[in-house]
Amino acid sequence: MDGSPFAGLSVLVAGAGVSGVSAARALLAQGATVSVVDGSPARIESMNLPAVTGLVGVDVVPPGIDLVVTSPGWRPTAPLLVAAADAGVEVIGEVELAWRLDQARPDGPADWLVVTGTNGKTTTVSMVESILLAAGLDAVACGNVGLPVVDAVLSGHRVLAVELSSFQLHWSSSVRPAAGLVLNVAEDHLDWHGSAAAYGAAKARALLGPVAVAGVDDEPAAALLAASPADRRIGVTAAEPAEGQFGVSAGVLVDRVFGPDGDAVSLIDAELIRPVGPTGIVDALAAAALTRSYGVAPESVEAGLRDFRPGAHRAVVVAEHDGIVYVDDSKATNPHAAAASLRGHARVVWLAGGLLKGASVDDLVAETGDRLAAAVLFGADRALIAAALARHAPDVPVYEVATGDDKAMREAVDIASQVARPGETVLLAPAAASMDMFTDYAHRGDSFAAAVLDRQAAEGVAEESAEGDGGAPERDTRPVARPAGTERADSDRIGAERLGGDDTGAGRPGSGADTGSDDVVERGGSV
Questions:
Q1: Annotated binding residue at 20?
Q2: 139 or 485: which carries more pLDDT confidence?
Q3: Could you tell me the pTM of the whole model?
Q4: Is 118 labeled as ligand-binding?
Q5: Which of 59, 302, 490, 517 has its C-alpha lying 20 to 30 A from 341's C-alpha?
């Protein structure tokens, strides 16, 4: 394509997943010669791009390559990317590619409103999209939320609500959004970034445009905001806001930035926000701040937030039975998100476990231990969570499920249902990634919901049968843990309270990622 900055270049795309396919297709359309490297021949074949040269398991840069476009799951330490840097070949990500394509649009670039943070990104960026659409703008949510940014740019939308993970931001050196948001920053993905400082520095890239927004109740995010070079810096708080902030006053979300003389502009009653609870309110305030900075009227903010409904696996009530509420928050894939989820409930039977990826759960347990009626743990790092509970909440009964396949969730739900009491919440908020046992967090949440509904259906049949005999049976409230030292034939099932058992969960590198929370995609995996 004449005039394209990529015409005539020889480009190597690292990864044949969703973003890799979009990048390769866009580069071909721009007149580039494209090769794709991936660890799986089947993934390369499934791209269905005959003009692409497929390379399997290559760790060196082929001769003549001008540019490498990497998928976000590839770490900077991957041998191929190290080799590219050593050879002086530029490495960018799909988001950076999208930015450069956007800047070259004949009708001028779109306006980017960028959302990042350890938790709440997908909910917030979806709220931003809802508000923009309510304002009548040609807008779409893209990025880590699902639609590749390259595809959103090539579709010609004028306003992009862009959710970016720390991985995507790391590879996006020149992106300068019209407004950028950092919701929060908590210990996460240290295995990918190498340090908390590097992780925070990646998040800070969202704040390099003219408007920077951050959650100031979160100290690391507030620090990034204070250090931002943006002309306008806006704080978001769940408390009464100061001038220059968005916050909550007398049960109403208010704007104390864009009103006359710093006066509060009412936006929407807090009780109307979904998802319910403090995190939903902060997400809504952040979305309001981002869109108000773009010139959206308060009436459109209210309409967009009224219309918004949270996505699946984000604090979704699955069922209520015998006074016990079952909530799927499988999207809580790290300790920071799990703590926020637990704070939304007074008394909880907590289902947790999976891959912690080096994150500590000590602060989470210390902060929320008084809310826990019991904990049911599963997955590869369940012993680490059990140890934190022993240190910080020793009176909380702990049950460990040693099964390493989909049956683990069914067993965990059975245990939780037996130990929960009326008025309590059985909450799936795992605090960990899912790929040791499930395809992704959605698969994990679906397994939880199916186990809850199947159990209730079975109990319904039992109760109907009992009623025919003169009444329903008394609910079993006996403890399900066995005493230490006893034997059990089906030893892959529940271990004793405060006892572990061997970790039988088999990890599946490259099988998928909890993309809404920056979960790592293994080298060559889908994105």
A1: no
A2: 139
A3: 0.71
A4: yes
A5: 302
